Amino acid sequence: MTRRLTLVALELWLPVVAVLAWWLWSATAAEAFFPPLREILERFREMWLFDKFVSDVVPSLRNMAIGFGLASILGIAIGMVLARVRLLREAFEPLMHFVRATPGVALVPIFILILGFGSSMKISIIATAAIFPTIIATMDGVRSADPVLLDISRAYQLSRRQRVTKVLLPSAGPQIFAGLQVSLQVAFVVMIASEMLGSTQGIGALTLLAQQSFAVTDMWSGIVLLGLLGYLVNLLFLLVRSRVLHWYDGARKAAKE
Amino acid sequence: MPTLRPGTVRRYAVGAASIGVTALLWQWAVTGPLADKPFATVPEILGRLRDFAGDPLFWSSLGETFRVATIGLVISVVLGVAAGLMVGQSDLAYRSTRVLVEFLKPIPPIVILPLLVLVLGPTGDMGIFLVAFGGVFPLITQTAHGVHDVDPVAAETARSFRLTRWQRIRTLVAPTALPFVATGVRISASAALVIALVSEIIGGAPGLGKDLVLAQTTGDYPAIYALVATFGVLGVLVNAVLAAIERRALFWHPSVRSEVTA
Hints:
The complex is a heterodimer. Chain A is mostly helical. Chain A has eleven helices and no strands.
């Protein structure tokens, strides 16, 4: 018990000291760009809980959820098809690596020109930018499936549907989730970027507008919210991943021991 | 000496054909059904790329983007490896910093961009800071992970031979940790170009990203597509160069050796 407590204390003392140091320093520093932490947290509560919650936080997260959802489903489906059909794979691979190497944020201006500043632009650019890591990871994962597994599923005369859902998807699971995690990070960045470039709605837009109008405390409260969201979205993803892939993590752990 | 096998020839032929078909489809779409939409034709885009090649302004923008990405990357490598070595070698340091690093790592640099623009202005320094911030966390965790991975028997042996601290780092820690560090460098390097462009597109720092926003606001469609194509080519080149460097620097490591024989 004491050992446990010591470990927890060991892990937590530095973050606690860091926040305390920030609090104390910013309270007396009188630096224009670094307002007291107390004021930032106050603004945080006023802005996000819940004045701007429905008008800005919900649309941001909804756009990201829909965009990432589309990218995941389509990305896994396309990756599966490309892995199984050689001609399509060879035709699309060079183009795909080219588009994937293009930063998603650089595509935002084009999407704004074509679709304007609304939600459809934001959802489309999030889905477009986020789809490629999932496609490529799914393709690699399915292609590296154990050939013995494929032979067995043929010997047992599994239907195409069974082969995909019971054999190929699970065996590619770890790689698919690695791809999905990159896609999620891209989706989060592009969500912010699509709001920062000329939009007036969303967390990113409010944060950048606050910076441009020198509302420093508002800007900080936006940064704190985006930082927390970045952390929480990743945490949520890891929870889902460990639920779905518990068999894989268990097998790896057993193999290590 | 690599030889061209029939499979490789076929792959290149199919890839080239699909790029050609895509270009034709694009040309057909933007001259037909999408003619009144903000697109540019293939000859316009290629022509603009040719103009870029002779345009000193383009090259100075490209140079600036590269300067920001490279300096930022170097800073993140130096700081990240130093911090990773410290964190990896001491259990106390590892446990103390774990929560902080794990909290900051998934937060993309674009989040702190407004603050940096406020403090440093829309400058190259702002971009360098942003690139360094984005690259440092993968390097810290990768280096610490690599140092942790040192074989305990080898570590005991080093202790019984009374190797000095420097000898231990050079002969024991470095060879074990290097592949992990290389992975970290590759992650941070491919992010560096993207983050530099973000600092220009959203933060307004000079460089190719700012040129893109200028082309968008003035409605210069061929320039927009030519610039985005340039980003794609740069991204592909950076990834290829990094993979080649990694293969060359780590030719002795099992992960690379198996890649070559496969």
